[in-house]
């Protein structure tokens, strides 16, 4: 689909709910894309206005001919302007911006990973029927249940001791069912409770209360802004086993100077979406969002302060209650990870075709 056709479908309300949500996520996070949409809308408005003027002139001419005859002349008191003179600049700007989007940043706005050239790649991991879990489940003597392969996988982590977890919205958007699992917890279902399309966040709740009745989440969301150069690390599921990454905070803003995000010098890959970004003490300072498509070790995470404000704004104050004092401060990194691992999850998303 051409970018201009996609713009038209959005403006005319022809996109389905999932497509419209994906479109609006990019509209709020991609400045070039947003400018292209606005210029296209301006062009359409100008074309519509010009067409309405022409129709009105035709109707007035018809009335004039009926009243005064076809030989009577109409003398305009205003200097006649052509469409090009009146709207040419708008048309050229809109066309130029649209071409820039088409050739410089073509977006895939369907299910799964959102990829653009020189843009943010969102890190949901799309899967096929050759899922390793199925292969492992049918090995001779295996006691593990056989599960159908998920359409998408990613990461999530606990927000408190009451079974609430957080992940990326782009991953679970439009899901028929969502499950989580890790080495400690067997696969269990989770229900979507709150969403924030602007920040690409989703809060889930584990449905089986028995699974979290003894939780002791060892970290909390850090309310303070982190510093450039600060050591940070990630935990997530780009593979079936937990993957650890470490690096530093390289910028206090994200793509296109987005102040809701941090930039980090840690390689992040499909499957890392929704995973935690942690400081040296083991506290949460962000949620992994994506990376620059054509750059290595350049990831982005939504800031914890933005997460807190978002949850409060959409009525989730009770979700933010939890541990105020981290129990991982001062521990060796290996010990921190052992404490945190049970509360970081692999997210499995199922969607109908």
Would you kindly provide a written description of the structure presented here, covering whatever features stand out?
The protein is of the alpha+beta class and 353 residues long. It has 2 domains: 3-69 and 82-110, no CATH class; 125-350, Thrombin, subunit H. Helix content is 31%, strand content 23%. A hairpin with a 6-residue loop joins strand 12 (284-292) and strand 13. Helix 2 packs across helix 3 and helix 3 runs antiparallel to helix 4 (83-104). The protein starts with a helix and ends with a strand.
Query: Over the alpha carbons, how many angstroms does the gyration radius reach?
Result: 26 Å
Instruction: Tell me the strand percentage band.
Output: 15-25%
CATH class of the largest domain: Mainly Beta
Broad structural category: alpha+beta
Tally of separate helices: 8
| CATH topology (level 3) name of the largest domain | Thrombin, subunit H
Q: Report the biggest beta sheet as strand number plus sense, adding barrel if it closes.
A: 6 strands, antiparallel, barrel
Low-confidence stretches: 74-80, 97-118, 128-140
The tally of beta strands, per DSSP, is 14
User: Mean pLDDT, rounded to whole units?
Assistant: 77
Helix content: 25-40%
């Amino acid at each position: 689909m051409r970018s201009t056709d996609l713009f038209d479908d959005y403006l005319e309300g022809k996109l389905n709910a999932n497509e419209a949500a994906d479109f609006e996520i990019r509209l709020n996070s991609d400045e070039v894309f947003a400018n292209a949409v606005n210029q296209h809308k301006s062009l359409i408005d100008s074309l519509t206005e010009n067409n309405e003027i022409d129709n009105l002139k035709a109707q007035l001419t018809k009335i004039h001919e009926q009243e005064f005859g076809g030989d009577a002349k109409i003398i305009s008191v205003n200097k006649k302007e052509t469409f090009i003179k009146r709207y040419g600049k708008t048309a050229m700007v809109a066309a130029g911006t649209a071409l820039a989007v088409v050739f410089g940043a073509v977006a895939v706005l369907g299910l799964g990973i959102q990829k653009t050239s020189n843009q943010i790649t969102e890190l949901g991991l799309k899967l096929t029927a050759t899922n390793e879990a199925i292969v492992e489940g049918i090995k001779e003597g295996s006691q593990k249940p056989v599960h159908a392969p998920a359409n998408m996988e990613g990461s999530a982590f606990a927000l408190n001791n009451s079974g609430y977890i957080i992940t990326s919205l782009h991953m679970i958007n439009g899901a028929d069912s969502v499950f989580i699992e890790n080495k400690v917890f067997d696969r269990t279902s989770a229900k979507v409770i709150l969403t924030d399309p602007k920040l690409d966040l989703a809060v889930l709740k584990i449905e089986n209360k028995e699974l979290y009745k003894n939780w002791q989440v060892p970290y909390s969301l850090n309310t303070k802004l982190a510093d450039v150069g600060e050591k940070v690390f990630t935990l997530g599921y780009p593979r079936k086993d937990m993957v650890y990454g470490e690096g530093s905070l390289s910028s206090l803003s994200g793509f296109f100077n987005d102040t809701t995000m941090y930039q980090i010098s840690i390689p992040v890959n499909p499957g890392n979406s929704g995973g935690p970004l942690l400081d040296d003490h083991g506290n949460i300072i962000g949620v992994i969002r994506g990376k620059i498509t054509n750059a290595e070790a350049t990831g982005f995470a939504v800031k914890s302060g933005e997460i807190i404000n978002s949850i409060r704004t959409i009525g989730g104050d009770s979700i933010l209650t939890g541990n105020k004092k981290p129990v991982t401060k001062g521990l060796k990194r290996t010990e921190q990870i052992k404490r945190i691992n049970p509360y970081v999850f692999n997210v499995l998303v199922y969607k109908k075709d």
